[in-house]
Amino acid sequence: MRNGQILCPTDFSETASHALSYAIEMANLYQVGFRLLHVVEQPMGDENFQILAITPEELAQSMEDAAAEKMKSLLAKLDSNLPIETMIRRGDAVTEILAEAEESHVGMIVIASHGRKGLSHFLHTNVAEAVANRAKCPVLVVK
User: Fold this and answer.
1) What domain of life is recorded for the organism (predicted)?
2) pLDDT tens-digit profile of 23-34?
């Protein structure tokens, strides 16, 4: 852990911002860089229903552009002299976070959990739980 970068996935929520502060603190403590990742879910569309006025590819690109702007804004607020890499990936959040961790050989993942319970937990994919269970590196879950 002490040699590898820290991966911090974000959905730009308040909870993710809280996890980011932990990631920065850990990176400063171990003097390692960190990677800030946002995953854009691939939009689904069926041309037969004619719901979308634009193609799913155009919508995904628009979502990536919006995420890039949010990422720039977030970086402007960070207080760290360590190297920060940002990336935006497209696909399933859990799959892409785990792939990024593997490909980049990160030392730790710091991820936010929204702390859902009951029916809400059942209805929403718990990304933090899935990442913590399947990652090959240590995972710090922040709520």
Assistant:
1) Bacteria
2) 988 888 888 988
- Kindly state which CATH superfamily the domain 6-142 is placed in: HUPs (3.40.50.620)
Strands across the sheet containing 139-142: 84-90, 34-40, 6-9, 108-112, 139-142
- Cα(92)–Cα(88) distance, integer angstroms: 12
State the amino acid at position 107 in one-letter form: G
C-alpha dihedral over 64, 81, 94, 65, to 10 degrees?
Answer: 0
Which is nearest to 38 in space by CA: 1, 82, 75, 81? 75
Render the burial of 7-36: b for 16+ CB within 10 Å, e for the rest: bbbbbeeebbeebbebbbebbeebebebbb
pLDDT per residue over 41-83, tens digit each?
A: 876 655 545 555 667 777 778 888 888 888 887 777 776 677 8
